[in-house]
Amino acid sequence: MKFYVLTVFPEIFEALREYSILGRALKNGLVEINVLNLRDFTQDKHRSTDDYPYGGGPGMVMLAEPIISALSGVMEKTGGEVYTVLLGPGGNKFTQEKARELALKQTLCLICGHYEGVDARVRDLCQEEISLGDFVTTGGELPAMVLIDAVSRLTPGVLGNFESLGEESFAKGLLEYDQYTRPRELVIPEILISGHHQAINTWRLKNSLLKTLIFRPDLLKAKDLSPEELKLLREIKETLEEILLKSK
Fold first, then answer.
1. E strand or H helix that includes residue 88
2. Of 77 and 170, the one with more pLDDT
3. Domains of the chain in sequence order
C-alpha cells in the first residue's frame, strides 16, 4: 500500500515511522508513506500556501496552485494510477467499510486541508472528500494519519494475526465482545474458561449484540441480522425488560 500526503506540516507524519505496527510495516516495505511539503511547490519568496478569500470573511484559504503542482508531480510518478482524497468536513464519513474500500486501492494521495479551508478548485480534482465525523480539527493532518493507520492495517502482512480483523468492532457491523485475560482469580464470566467453544462463541455473539444495542443501536438498524442473531437479540431484549420491570 502506497500513500502520498500533501501537507504544510510534514514533520507531524514522522511519528508514524516509530509507531509499533505501522512502523514495522514501513520498515518491512508493506506500506510506503511519501510526505510532500506544499511549501516546496510555491512560487513566491515567502513560500505562501494560503491567501485571503474572495468576497471577504475571517481566516485564510489554502491556495490551489501549490496543491495542483504537487498533485501533478504525484500523477507523474504514479502514471496517474492514484486515488486522490481531500480530508475535509464536507466529505463522506470515514467508516470501517470505507477503510476496506480504500485498502483495495494501490496508491492513495491525501490532501490535508487547513486554515478556513481549501480553494474549491482543488476539490474538483479529487475523487473523493472524506471526513472523520461531525467535528472540526485544526487541519487535515490528524485525520490523514487516522486514515493511513486504519487502511494500512487491512493490508495483508501488516497484522501478525490477520484473522483478528474479523473479530474487531465494526468488522461484522457490531461492536466487539468483551475480552478478558489473566489473572483468572479476578471475576470473569465462567463460560470463557469452560473449554466449550460453541458456548463461548454464542456468549461472545450475545455480548457483542448487547453492547451494540446499548451503545450503538444505529448499527443494528443498518445490519442484516442472521436468524441466530435475531434470536439472541430477542432474548437480550426480554431479559432487559424483565430487569426494568423488577426495578420499578
1. strand 83-93
2. 77
3. 2-152 (3.40.1280.10), 190-247 (1.10.1270.20)
